[in-house]
Amino acid sequence: MFSASETSGRVSINLAAIFMGNDLNISLYGGDAPHIGAVALAQPRPSLQDAEQRSSTCSVLAITGHKEDELARSLALDLSKKLEVRVCVACGIHLDKISPDEIGLALAMCNRLAAQLLKEIKGG
Length: 124
Fold this sequence. Notes:
By secondary structure, the protein is α+β, with helices and mostly antiparallel strands. It has helices spanning 69-83, 100-122, and strands at 2-8, 11-20, 23-31, 38-46, 54-62, 87-94.
């Protein structure tokens, strides 16, 4: 089990991850009303352009009106490819009247938390 969080101003992001056998399940949530806005499931595979390279494919479900789908997708694809395991990311971040700067901050925080998780799994 891995858990980490980051807060700056009004923006607070949490990441919790657990291995389920060889599969990695991640919850990424925060803001005023954490929830599930989108779920992405990625699976590693050989690259379609070069079978010697690794890639990943992903399916995404998003709740109508929610915008977490691209974040969930990009994290699931990246981690699946790098770890060579199936990765599920459930994501829900809501901050009332969020500004463009706060959106950028939240995305940067999510990426830093994912990097911490990857470092932890890879052993430092």
